[in-house]
Design a protein that fits this description.
This protein is an alpha+beta fold. The protein folds into three domains: about 1-320, alpha-galactosidase from lactobacil brevis (Beta-galactosidase, Chain A, domain 5), CATH 2.70.98.60; about 335-415 and about 460-485 and about 520-635, Aldolase class I (TIM Barrel); about 650-730, Sandwich (Immunoglobulin-like). About 20% of the residues lie in helices and about 30% in strands. The protein is built from 13 helices and 40 strands. Helix 9 links the parallel strand 28 (about 525) and strand 29. The chain is globular, with a radius of gyration of 27 Å. Bound molecules: alpha-D-galactopyranose. Alpha-D-galactopyranose (GLA) binds next to loops.
Length: about 725
């Protein structure tokens, strides 16, 4: 619910449990008043004014030495009118090269339904589910119009933000920086919880105190990256899983970005989140009449700790970000041949794997890398999206038909954004890749990236993909992307527009994805970038699931999936059971543990079933039956982290509780083995305290409070990496 009090200039956004407030003050400056748990008054009494040294005053208010943008909480801080903190917006006036701006409120509109953004992913909601607030700010000198957009999802406790910039002046402007949102807080101690990592070890949790000196995470790589995820949590200093205030910030963007937080000279805290250009600099030319949309930021506030925050973000991403038929439909249990064969296969070997998989209960066969062009290893062939019939011994049509005849659906791997130098595509169109004419490009995995900033290239790739999808029965696509971008130079743009390439590239990727999902609405697309290098809310708008990591080791996955769970729902987390010793870590874990960990995701297999023992084959069948039975609970239930793998060295535990709290599944994996071991316990969460639950595995029954507060003992002396599940049903 959005309210605008014209007399005071106060705009209040209320969701079920939260309030967000701003004020167009008497000078037309848009102040940020409040974001947090629901309040029933305005918070304008918290704003104080004082004569501050070295904090300047806008010229028209110059006689009031207590009014300085440097000290006030601002809704969308810009550079040029005396605020020296980290700005959200920096604009260069090309008429004289100056960086000044003075944005004053000119218009406030409230409407039903949710705004959308041009060419960018944005959450969606029905007219009765979402409202839009638009606050227009203007700079009289440049003619720049800034529309601050707020999408309000009352029932989800979510507020989204984005910004539309329009050059209504007569001279060109250059956008040097345009963040999606800033949040100012007048006082308090905050932590920034962010998720860092590397290839095959993504989304490790980093919990830092925000202090003086800027704390900044982001990506320079043209993708959101393995290194830092564009989801962070701003938490009150005392917040934990169950108590305390925290704000989730999802930047819905898949390219370079920056999220930074800082305590200023007056102990006020500012967070700024948005896209960035090459090395942080966005140099986007905005000619008179042109406009520019920033990506969206999704904000949610929880007064009840991190678990509740995750429940909010999970339900919002599941319902208002993920689209298409697989938003609600059960996702297929798949087998992927990558770790089973790597590049070493022919059609018959694949069909044998598929036959075996079918007998075990698997539903979808995915053919990974190596089926096209001249691709015997990862040095060649990218870009030649034509099946290698010599290698397969059959056409793709025949392979997919034979797999379908077995009763499995068929999926295929692509890396549409890349090209190998040793490929027919590169030989025909060297100008289609990103590279600086005067210097050789950076190579990575022996491949270059296509210039997706150029429409012609996106169209070319689209036609190649359509040719394949139209000629075989493909119900799943794995969209991979296996390097960081570099050499941001596009032949299609003039020299004064090269700063736009990295963002235009992302827009090109979104464009191709949008066209594919429109043309093949029943195809499931799984995103991937060397595993989870582009695991973000932007990609989830197009691809309902993302391969979470190239690391399939169950123990490392406990860490990776733990970190991922703070911002992303289980439905998005691609996870498979693979062979042991694990190919990434060399570790051997029990088959049961691998199943338990993979089931807390989309679930599938990445191994050659012919290499399994009879016992493992039986276990695999049981896993599949179990997963199908638990599907609704895992997919729609509430997810609880019961331990942290960072602080609980002995055990990792988590659980799902159905919305009606009638069923639950508790999962635990032992991390350590010692002589004369101690007894281990876990404390389940989310159960009805005075209801009695029957535990399927032990055939015992206990009240919810006895389990949650007194605890649930683990079997004595669990073996190393042994996993265990308990299924609870209300008696
Ligand atoms: C990336 C993906 C893997 C696999 C390989 C194929 O690393 O993350 O799952 O598809 O590429 O080359």
């Amino acid at each position: 619910m959005i309210k605008h009090d014209k007399k005071t200039g106060i705009i209040t956004i209320n969701t079920k449990n939260t309030t967000y407030q701003m004020q167009a003050d008497t000078h037309g400056i848009l102040l940020h008043l409040y974001y947090g748990r629901k309040i029933h008054f305005d918070a304008s009494h918290t704003i104080q004014y004082a004569d501050r040294g070295f904090s300047g005053n806008p010229y028209d208010l110059g006689s009031d030495r207590t009014y300085s943008l440097d000290a006030l909480p601002l809704e969308y801080p810009f550079y040029g009118e005396g605020d020296y903190r980290n700005p959200a917006l920096i604009i260069k006036n090309e008429k004289d090269g100056s960086l000044g701006l003075d944005l004053r409120v000119s218009d406030i509109e409230i409407s039903k339904g949710k705004y959308s953004l041009k060419g960018l992913p944005a959450s969606y909601g029905a007219e009765n589910e979402a409202e839009t607030l638009s606050v227009t700010l203007k700079d009289s000198i440049t003619g720049l119009t800034v529309r601050l957009l707020y999408g309000v999802f009352e029932g989800y406790d979510v507020i989204t933000r984005a910004v539309k910039l329009t050059n209504e002046g007569t001279a060109p402007l250059t956008i040097k920086k345009a963040a999606s949102a800033a949040l100012d807080f007048l006082y308090g101690d905050y932590r920034l919880i962010s998720f860092y990592g590397r290839h095959a070890m993504e989304r490790n949790l980093c919990d830092s105190l925000i202090s003086h000196g800027r704390l900044s995470i982001g990506s320079n790589r043209g993708t959101s990256s393995h290194q830092y995820n564009p989801f962070v949590i701003l938490a009150d200093s005392g917040t934990n899983e169950d108590f305390g205030g925290c704000i989730g910030v999802h930047l819905m963007y898949s390219g370079s970005f920056e999220i930074s937080a800082e305590k200023d000279q007056y102990d006020q805290t500012r967070l700024v989140a948005g896209l960035s250009g090459i090395c942080g600099e966005l140099d986007w030319l905005l000619q008179p009449g042109e406009d520019f949309d920033t990506p969206e930021v999704i904000l949610t506030y929880s007064k009840d700790g991190l678990t509740h925050l995750s429940h909010n973000t999970h339900s919002f991403i599941n319902n208002c970000v993920i689209r298409g038929s697989f938003k609600d439909k059960r996702r297929p249990i798949l087998i992927n041949n990558w770790e089973a064969t790597y590049f070493d296969f022919d059609g018959e070997r694949l069909i044998n794997i598929a036959k075996d998989a079918k007998n075990l209960g698997i539903e979808l066969f995915v053919l990974d890398d190596g089926w096209f062009g001249k691709r015997e290893d990862d040095n060649t062939g990218l870009g030649d999206w034509k099946v290698n019939t010599g290698k397969l011994g059959m056409t793709l049509g025949e392979l997919s038909r034979r797999i379908n005849e077995l009763g499995l659906s068929f999926g295929l791997w692509f890396e549409p954004e890349a090209v190998s130098e040793d490929s027919d595509m590169y030989r025909a169109h060297p100008e289609y890749c990103l590279r600086i004419p005067s210097r050789p490009p950076v190579r990575a995995r022996y491949q270059l990236m296509l210039d997706f900033a150029r429409q012609e290239v996106v169209d070319f790739v689209y036609e190649m993909l359509v040719d394949i999808f139209d000629n075989a029965n493909i119900s799943y696509m794995k969209w991979d992307m296996n390097r960081s971008l570099s050499d941001f130079y596009s032949d299609a743009l003039s020299k004064d527009r090269q700063g736009e390439v990295s963002h235009r590239y992302v827009l090109g990727v979104y464009d191709l994805l949008e066209r594919l999902i429109k043309r093949y609405p029943d195809m499931l697309i799984e995103g991937c970038s060397g595993g989870g290098g582009r695991f973000d809310a932007g990609m989830l708008y197009y691809t309902p699931q993302v391969w979470c990591s190239d690391n399939t080791d169950a123990i490392d996955r406990l860490f990776i999936q733990y970190g991922t769970s703070f911002g992303y729902p289980i439905s998005a987390v691609g996870s498979h059971v693979s062979a042991v010793p694990n190919h990434q870590t060399g570790r051997t874990t029990p088959f049961n543990t691998r199943g338990i960990v993979a089931m807390s995701g989309t679930f599938g297999y990445e191994l050659d079933p012919a290499k399994l023992t009879d016992e493992e084959r039986e276990a695999l069948k049981t896993q599949i039956e179990r997963f199908k039975k638990d599907y609704d609970l895992i997919r729609h239930g509430d997810y609880y982290r019961l331990t942290s793998p960072y602080s609980d060295k002995e055990l990792c535990a988590w659980m799902f509780v159905s919305k009606d709290k009638k069923t639950a599944v508790i999962n635990a994996v032992s991390l350590n083995n010692h002589g004369n071991p101690v007894f281990k316990y876990i404390n389940p969460k989310g159960l009805i305290p005075d209801a009695v639950y029957h535990i399927e595995e032990s055939d015992e029954a206990y009240p919810g409070d006895a389990l949650m507060y007194a605890g649930l003992p683990l079997p004595y002396a669990l073996g190393e990496y042994e996993g265990i599940q308990w299924h609870l049903n209300l008696t």
